[in-house]
């Protein structure tokens, strides 16, 4: 009797999965890499709705990430990328060891790209390409987590994500890191299921690459290993030898990252010596991360976060262990981020790897609607809604500058200055984006940097009766949070205009 009930349960599940299958009766002939023949690929593209939609999403993702790729001028962090990448491989490692709080791999990659040119487009090609390739990876991860519908919805979310597009068009390591994190999670899901050495080693390998791209990935890696130990602890207790594959993955990661781990500890100690002067602190880092990943607007925030919560509930109903995976990863990352936000600057972009957890959770919510409507059309409807809510944000993103316009501002300075004038960058490190577009040698001006009020006084006291141009950004609050420099500018200069987030003050 029990067997008959089990059989009926299996038949019911099969019927429901068949209803939710966008491919209908088509069965893909591609089961492994060995099946990737021209004939099989053609059959899949012509008969699989999932393949067709994924192909369309990837093409749209390509257009959205390459459109206006060189439009915005380089802002501070991108100028740091350009300046650092221009050094030799050894010099880059030295800079990382003593100054910049970022791993060297992305700078090494950009160092190679500089052989093809040094304009904005060239510097952003790697983030754009890896951003595009992450779209099909989200599909594969979603498929491995639960089913192809979760995968295709997660891929659609990523393809149109303004948050992801922004960092796919920035010459920093964020989109590259997310690409390798996605690969890492894909093999992690396989490793948890099969517990084989191959998948655990691949997990360790791609986790290591992601870590060489961004230090904060270590939080995600620890949370994944923590989850693996928790869910597989009964197996390990029963037979200790079964921990061997997980150990192989961990050892692979440690071997590949050993010099970087030592450096991370050293840099972390120096980074947390004093309280941060910028960034989001406490619960603000959690709220801002959700807000920015949710199209920045209130409607998108409440809708997507609501769907994410519904999706978490669904995965716990379907598979408790996989629900724990999403929940442990999310809570552990936010807990560490909350604590660290009082010790070092924390920004939502540092948590970009949570995009895959967030979008998978949202995609999982489709199962709730399918329980009510039981029709494959619901997958298309959910996908269209998720795409539509991103369109207003994307329209705004492509309609103007999303970064400080140092290119335009430098051109204005070139037209305003005369021979012998003084230009003062406040803070001083703003010379990096400014000098990418401006040359004081060509313009016959004198350039200085000021980080303190004393610097401003010393520059103003220099001999000469030429005009002084003070170029100021909001970073002044980071280096001088007590406001002394702002007060000095109010008392000794005249406000002369603004271009995006760059302010100009002048003094005779």
How would you summarize the topology of this molecule?
Blueprint lengths: L1 H18 L18 H10 L1 H18 L9 H10 L3 H10 L6 H9 L6 H4 L1 H21 L2 H12 L2 H7 L5 H21 L2 H17 L3 H22 L5 H28 L11 H11 L4 H21 L1 H21 L13 H11 L1 H8 L3 H12 L2 H7 L8 H11 L5 E5 L4 H7 L2 H4 L2 E4 L3 H8 L7 E6 L2 H4 L4 H9 L1 E6 L2 E6 L1
Summarize the main sheet.
Answer: 5 strands, mixed
Distance between the termini: 96 Å
**Which percent bin holds the helix content?**
55-70%
Give the overall form: globular
- The overall average pLDDT, rounded, is 89
CA radius of gyration: 26 Å
Overall domain count? 2
Question: What is the number of helices?
Answer: 27
Number of strands: 5
Q: Helices and strands: which structural class? A: mainly alpha
């Amino acid at each position: 009797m029990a067997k008959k009930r089990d059989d009926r349960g299996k038949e019911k599940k099969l019927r429901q999965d068949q209803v939710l299958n966008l491919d209908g009766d088509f069965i893909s002939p591609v089961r492994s890499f060995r099946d990737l023949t021209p004939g099989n690929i053609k059959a899949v593209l012509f008969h699989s709705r999932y393949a067709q939609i994924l192909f369309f999403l990837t093409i749209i993702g390509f257009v959205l990430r390459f459109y206006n790729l060189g439009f915005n001028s380089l802002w501070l962090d991108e100028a740091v990328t350009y300046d650092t990448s221009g050094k030799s491989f050894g010099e880059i490692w030295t800079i990382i060891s003593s100054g910049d709080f970022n791993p060297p791999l992305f700078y090494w990659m950009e160092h190679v790209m500089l052989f093809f040119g040094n304009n904005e487009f060239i510097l952003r090609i790697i983030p754009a390409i890896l951003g595009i390739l992450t779209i099909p990876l989200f599909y594969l991860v979603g498929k491995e987590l639960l089913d192809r519908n979760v995968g295709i919805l997660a891929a659609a979310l990523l393809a149109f994500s303004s948050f992801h597009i922004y960092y796919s068009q920035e010459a920093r390591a964020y989109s590259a890191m997310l690409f390798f994190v996605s690969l890492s999670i894909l093999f992690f899901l396989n490793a948890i299921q099969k517990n084989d050495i191959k998948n655990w080693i691949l997990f360790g390998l791609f986790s290591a690459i992601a870590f060489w791209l961004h230090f904060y990935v270590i939080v995600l890696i620890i949370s994944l290993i923590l989850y693996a130990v928790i869910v597989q602890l009964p197996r390990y207790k029963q037979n200790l030898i079964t921990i061997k594959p997980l150990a192989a993955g961990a050892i692979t990661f440690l071997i590949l990252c050993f010099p970087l781990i030592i450096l991370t500890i050293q840099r972390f100690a120096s980074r947390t010596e004093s309280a941060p002067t910028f960034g989001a602190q406490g619960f603000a880092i959690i709220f801002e991360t959700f807000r920015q990943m949710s199209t920045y607007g209130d409607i998108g925030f409440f809708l997507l976060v609501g769907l994410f919560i519904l999706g978490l509930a669904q995965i716990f109903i379907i598979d408790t262990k996989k629900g724990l995976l999403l929940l442990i990863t999310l809570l552990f990352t936010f807990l560490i981020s909350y604590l660290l936000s009082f010790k070092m600057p924390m920004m939502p972009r540092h948590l970009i790897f949570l995009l895959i957890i967030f979008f998978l959770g949202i995609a999982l919510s489709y199962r709730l609607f399918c329980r009510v409507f039981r029709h494959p059309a619901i997958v298309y409807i959910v996908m269209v809604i998720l795409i539509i809510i991103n369109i207003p944000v994307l329209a705004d993103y492509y309609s103007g500058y999303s970064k400080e316009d140092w290119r335009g501002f430098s051109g204005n300075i070139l037209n305003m200055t005369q021979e012998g004038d003084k230009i003062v960058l406040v803070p001083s490190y703003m010379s990096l984006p400014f000098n990418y577009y401006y040359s004081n040698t060509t313009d016959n001006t004198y350039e200085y940097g000021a980080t303190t009020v004393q610097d401003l006084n010393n520059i103003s006291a220099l001999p000469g009766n030429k005009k002084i141009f003070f170029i100021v950004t909001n970073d002044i609050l980071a280096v001088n949070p007590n406001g002394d420099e702002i007060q000095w500018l109010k008392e000794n200069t005249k406000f002369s205009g603004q271009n995006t987030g760059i302010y100009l003050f002048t003094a005779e």
